[in-house]
Write a structure and sequence with these properties.
Structural class: alpha+beta
Radius of gyration: 21 Å
Strand content: 25-35%
Shape: globular
CATH topology of the largest domain: D-amino Acid Aminotransferase, Chain A, domain 1
Bound molecules: 2-OXO-4-methylpentanoic acid
Largest sheet: 9 strands, mixed
CATH superfamily of the largest domain: Aminotransferase class 4, branched-chain amino acid transferase, N-terminal domain
Distance between the termini: 37 Å
Number of strands: 18
Length: 381
């Protein structure tokens, strides 16, 4: 899709959601709010904030039943009850999103491109035959929850509030068919860096994360389950993550761990295209591409073979390689094991483009840079 067309769709979507957001209130969605009397924020060690160790005080929950969403609730964060034959547990109708809230210097809370998460959740839902959720419900639930847990958004350098919207088939059935009842929830977790150091990747040429015609483009829980075993084998050998290749030939690079992957070769920013249906359409991926194009860096979304990568590393044409995702933001790749040989990549300090993009995106997310792309949603005070 052309950049212009994408921009028009993006603009329309943003305008629609923002205007609805201004009009909708807790009353319009009729969210029942039960606040905790015991905040656990004092238990959080903000000096040591690993990814996903702590959880915000509240969570949002809604139920899809009889073809409509209802039971909108915000309640204290905690365990949920489920029927043992709940369909998500058996047949895997379970999808999720990852997004982050940031604290600006003036104390405002900023969400980064949240309407894109709403849209992607619905694309995943369609692929897995699940209920979709109106984008304005998503935004209203999100804003109300984050507003209640505002103090959980730390303003420290490198910190954010990770937000996990997810939906699962909560109908108790045993026959294999799309469920008719779904639960949509959102909870939060204050986080620091996902990776504390540059990642070491192992090229995967046996197992696959996604197959053609499969669910690779959806943010389906099962995709992550399928990646655990190969990732564990790689980790036993000392690698942080797999560098995934296509499942038919294992000749072309697709993703890295739970991230999209980028290369800088001969001054061009290159990333696998989304044409095959095996690659997640990352919001960070799209943001990086838009920033690079804005800076007039040549960008290529295309197939990249393992041979091309190996040659580029050896000839010095490759000057940068990094993974991109919401959790990890930009994760520098330190080395790649290609067919049994560890190829060490250029010093991270010399990698101008990824360092510049990482800084710029961080500045936009925290309101330090002008939001020229209109990506941030400022939570009403
Ligand atoms: C994210 O970047 O939000 C992801 O989905 C990765 C997550 C599985 C930790």
């Amino acid at each position: 899709m052309g950049v212009l067309l994408k921009k028009i769709i993006f603009e329309n979507c943003r305008t629609k959601i923002e205007s609805i957001c201004l009009m909708t209130t807790t009353d319009s969605l009729n969210i029942q709010i039960e606040k905790t009397s015991h905040s656990s924020i004092h238990k959080v060690d903000f000096d040591q904030l690993p990814f996903g160790k702590y959880f915000g005080d509240h969570m949002f929950s809604a139920l899809f039943r009889n073809e409509a969403w209802s039971d909108f609730r915000i309640l204290p964060f905690g365990p949920i009850s489920m029927h043992p034959s709940m369909a998500a547990l058996h047949y895997g109708q379970s999808i999720f999103e990852g997004m982050k809230a940031y604290r600006a210097d003036n104390g405002d809370i900023l969400l980064f491109r949240p309407w894109e998460n709403a849209r992607r959740l619905n694309r995943s839902a369609e692929r897995l035959c699940m209920a979709t959720i109106p984008e304005e419900y998503f935004m209203d639930a999100l804003s109300t929850l984050i507003d209640i847990d505002r103090e959980w958004v730390s303003g420290r350098e490198g910190h954010s509030l990770y937000i996990r919207p997810f939906m699962f088939a909560s109908e108790a059935i045993l026959g294999v068919r799309p469920a008719q009842e779904y639960t949509f929830m959102i909870f939060t977790s204050p986080v620091g860096n996902y990776y504390n150091s540059p990642v070491k990747l192992m090229l995967e040429t046996h197992y696959s994360r996604a197959t053609k015609g499969g669910t690779g483009t959806a943010k389906a829980a099962g995709n992550y389950a399928a990646a655990l075993y190969p990732a564990k084998l790689g980790q036993l050998k000392g690698y942080s993550q797999q560098l995934w290749t296509d499942s038919s030939t294992h000749q072309f690079i697709e993703e890295s761990g739970t991230m999209n992957i980028f290369f800088v070769m001969n001054g061009k920013l290159i990333t696998p295209s989304l044409e095959s249906d095996t690659i997640l359409s990352g919001i960070t991926r799209d943001s990086i591409i838009q920033v690079a194009r804005h800076w007039r860096v040549p960008v290529e979304e295309r197939a990249i073979s393992v041979d091309e990568l190996d040659d580029a590393i050896q000839s010095g044409a490759l000057t940068d390689m990094f993974g991109a995702g919401t959790a990890a933001t930009i994760a520098h790749v330190e080395l790649v094991n290609i067919r049994g040989v560890d190829r060490v990549l250029p010093d991270i300090k010399t990698r101008q483009l990824s360092n510049d993009i990482a800084r710029f995106l961080s500045d936009i997310r925290t309101g330090k840079a002008d939001d020229i792309f209109e990506w941030t949603y400022r939570l009403p005070r």
